Amino acid sequence: MNSLKKVFNVIKELTKVNLIKTIYFNYSSFPFYIASRLPILFYGKVKFKDLSGKVNIDSTIVKFGIIKFGGSHEIVVSSNSPTELLIKGNITFTGSATFGQGTKIVIWENGNLICRNNFSLGSNSHIVSFRRIEFGSNVLISWNCNFYDTDFHFIKNASTNEVADNCKEVSIGSNTWIGSHVTVLKGTKLPNEIVIGSNSVCSSDYSLKINSKSIIAGNPAKLIKEDFVYILDKREESVLFKKYIGL
Prior knowledge:
The chain is an alpha/beta fold. The protein has helices at 2-14, 19-29, 32-35, 234-244, and strands at 40-42, 46-50, 54-57, 67-69, 83-87, 90-93, 97-99, 104-107, 112-115, 119-121, 126-129, 133-135, 139-141, 146-148, 170-172, 176-178, 183-184, 189-190, 194-196, 201-202, 214-218, 221-226. The longest helix is centred in the N-terminal third of the chain and has 13 residues, at 2-14.
């Protein structure tokens, strides 16, 4: 009975996905025994600009739809923009991941993107890696957020002609909630259990400035409150919705 239900759920989900893009991506990225499980699903409009890089699923459990791009899981915001992928470097997933509608992922030749288990990126968000961007487990990111480990262009000291490196690694700790319209720039490092307020700009090593269980916000982002955490338990969150909002 459980097996039949699983088959039904797979068929139901396949009616929603962009099947051509889903099949093409999986069989282009993985050996047959993994690709046949369709671990990565694509929904809606999708553009593959370059898939010459490598996609890894570093998990003991590789199952149907463990990673989703362009799904309509968000209630507050949606997008008609296509999901766009340019993968010349490496992407590694260690568990489930969800990417909202209209997300843009650019991994350049020496770039690396690592998404650990239970990663969620909101619609219309961008990730661009020329070197390395790593997200810990249980990271929830709202819509219209940007993550860059590069300045894209160079500047030089007009007196000495010295040109500095325009790339620095980005690291986001586990159990982190990032509000909408946040921009994370090169060199940003965040400890675990951080909440980032909407419209903030992060551009430094916060692990040297703040402790875990903190809220930061502003441009540039700075410490707002300590000893606060994002509630991960969805059952607890559901109770709170009923209590305060009536949902």
